[in-house]
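Shipment paperwork, digital attachment
Item: protein structure file
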Amino acid sequence: MKKIFYIVILCGLTIASCTRDNYLDFQPRGVVIPSSIDDFRLILDQVSEDENEFFEPQLSKGFGPIHGLSVFLTDNQQINDKLITSFGLGRSAVNAYIYRENFYTSLQEDPDWASYYNQIYVANVVLDGLEKVEGGTLQEIAQLKAEAKLHRAWAYFNLVNIYAVHYNASSAATDLGVPIREGIELEGLDFTRNTIEEVYDYILENILSSVDHLIDVQSNNVTFRPSKAGAYGLLAKVYLYQGNYENAVENANNALLLKNSLRDFNTEVIDDNGVRLNPEIVADPETVWFKLDNSKLPLFVSDELVSSYDTNDLRSQWYASFLDAFGEDIEGFVHQTANGAERLNVGISVADVILTQAEANARLGNITPANDALNTLRETRYALGTYSPISIADANELLTFIKEERRREMVHTFQRLFDIKRYNLFDNDDISVTHSIEGTEATILPNSLNWVFPIAQKYIQQNPEIEQNPRD
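Attachment content:
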């Protein structure tokens, strides 16, 4: 069954690989063309039939880095010259950190762009194949179609938030989003960028047409498969980003009715270095929909972020001072887990949904449920017997606190970039960031165009209809 995987990846390399130069053989000899319901299940899961082990890369966990560079644009990341030398940070990370015009050379792939469009292409292959699948009940086919659409919606949601300005209802109909890649054709394609409104409409259509065909929750060993709880969680996030707070609350509530388990940090293990060990994330009771952080880039966090945790907040034990190869202090903190960065979930978690619920309620003036949601989460994060419930009556003060809590809780998900963009747009928070590296200091201002990733030169050279994002 592994051969099925190879044909899908071969034809889905990147959006650029499926355009002008058609050097791909869609029916190569010696491979199996997927045709049965089991074939398409294996494509979506990308697991070995015999060993139930994951292949890398894969659809459910993501092809390559996910948001690999987005943290470098934010106030969560703090690097210095020692880190470049000791940990071999690539030039693309440095370029992003000081907001250069291009992050990658004209010959380089952008792993985020390639990763998400690979996911989209594989989802399209599955959806196309299920129209003529051999065997399988109507319910099985509908469920697989729904899962493929959810993977596709997730990919577009991240693409449009990485490579476009934040959703603005007054200009979304004309603001450039990303190309919508439909079907599995390899020639004669036009990759003109769709508008942000068109991309968001497409995301919502994919989720809303699928949610009823998904099972309520996935068992802990297969949380990489979409579920109703995951679909509602994603819907809540999409509506939050659009400023549609009524629908954000409704869908967050729907998700939490299906899954609301939280880990008590008091029961977790501390290693010999005093670092809190995360459980295996796929089986984490908080995981609603598992999406792998496969970037494997170290998260060197800012002093400001580390100092934002209370003394009894056990999340402060996520961070440790780092030494270089010579045993010298790097002068910074690194976010650590027992399983390495590749085990972190950047998908949907119960904590993520609770914070969406709290924020949307606060913005609607629903003060009591917003406070209740915060306390439900925070009491599991504090040392036993030390937590005092919060009760913030002022709506603006409460919203500010929720934003701070979201930053503390969601640091490993790379959502900070998206949050800064929407806070600056919706709330005029005037967040700017200044970075200094290799003798260069650069500042990104609240209204800067540089919050948006440039599209890699390689893709525009191969597909000139893709319009580049302007830079300051």
